[in-house]
What does this fold into?
Amino acid sequence: MSTRDLLLYLAAAVIMLLTLTGCVERKLTVHTIPEGALVTLNDEEIGRAPVTTSFEWYGDYNVRVSMPGYETLETHRKLDRPLHDRFPFDFIANNLTSKQIVDEYEWTFELQPKKEIGRDELIEQATELRDQL
It folds into this structure.
């Protein structure tokens, strides 16, 4: 077998490997107690819970969950990168596997009922603030 033939076979093998590329699908599902709360990730509304969204990157997310009659919850959650998303494994997972990888994560948030402040308590708080000035 000549060098030219070997290079042709090698090029064909590389092209075949690249056409068999897999991909990684990333999904995040957010549940709330009670259901139906509006979920916002990094200042982008994604919908009412339970809601599933795709995401592109791992890391820290600002989360806001709100619903009438309940205290608005503002917090952070972190999505850690799995091994197949770290170098050099990410190249293999994204380019050299024919199997699709699905990363699925679920978060659950519980909302607390809104506390109504009575008239007398509100006046007392205002008086305390005025005295502090």
